[in-house]
Design brief:
This protein has 72 residues and is α+β, with helices and mostly antiparallel strands. The chain has 4 helices and 2 strands.
């Protein structure tokens, strides 16, 4: 049995192919065998008036809604 390492990039690419490629490079440098990305459409998974999470409040524009912050 061989062990495989899967790097979890999640949605940290923010919809940017440039950032996604950097994440692949970092995963490769860390000797990951695979990398897992996630994508979604904000309008399908959240309401427009959803509250921001604490980390979003700390690192995003305070006048921007959560929907506006994460929509791609």
């Amino acid at each position: 049995m061989s062990i495989r390492i899967i790097a979890e990039a999640g949605v940290n690419h923010n919809g940017s192919i440039h950032i996604a490629k950097k994440l692949v490079d970092v995963a490769s440098e860390a000797k990951a065998d695979y990398i897992k990305f996630q994508t979604f459409k904000a309008k399908r998974v959240m309401t427009r008036n959803a509250d921001k999470a604490e980390y979003q409040k700390n690192f995003t524009d305070k006048d921007e809604s959560q929907f506006e912050t994460i929509k791609i």
